[in-house]
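To whoever picks this up:

The nightly regression suite flagged Secretion system C-terminal sorting domain-containing protein as changed. Nothing in the input moved, so I suspect the structure step. Input below, exactly as stored in the fixture:
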Amino acid sequence: MKKIFTLLFTMALFQSGVSQISLEHTYPNSMAAMAGINLSDSGFKYRMVDPDANQVVLYNPDHSIFKSMAFDPYPDAGRVTVWYISEKTFDLDNGVEFMVSYGNLDDTTHLTRIYNEDGTILFERIGEVPAWLAENEPSDAINAIFTAPGGTKMILNSSADHAAKVYSLPGSLPLALHEPDSQIIHPDIRLFPNPTKNNKISIAYTLPGNVKIGKVTIYNMSGQPVKTFEVDNHFNTIELDTGSLSAGTYVCEVSGNSGRISTSQFIVQN
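Regenerated output under the current build:
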């Protein structure tokens, strides 16, 4: 009888714990596009970046829309990255601003812009991209904006003369933004050419030192896996045949036994 009581108690406790986890809200077609951020004045928001629509949408904690912000497309930019969605970093008004980095992985096209929430371009530099740390640094090792003696600074790398340029910003970086809010590109994974038109794309990945075997999974924008590959740390590049994929945007995820390591997006064109 004691064993039966213990079993029933354990089952009840387990069911009680499970019942505390429930689905709160679903954002359609937003896999690898959603994250939580903290704005210095407006507090916590969910953010969604849609590179195909050139749009950033911020949602309140109750999932109602807080702001919908557009940015301009840029010709021949196969990679579009949104960084540093923030208040009072790039200017001192009450609005939201964000950085957009346009470029290709072959380093032939680079453009960095800072947008106001109304679509106004506050800053633009052609041939300059946010500063990355060395390739062997930890994930998300971007250090483009930081607080220094004398104020907030931004470093952009110039592809024209290989210089690192330091810019002074009028605002400050929120404490919660010590790691930048980012989307689309990840230093542990590279996809090229992107977009791809020739039925092939190269996936360059990096597994952490403690991960011997990993997995590369390709998802469509509905969250369905369409291709899966096992990879190891003896190689760092695989070739993906995209001939069977329909035109559109796909998510590439590298994972290990402990879960997701990195994600990025690529575009298949007819």
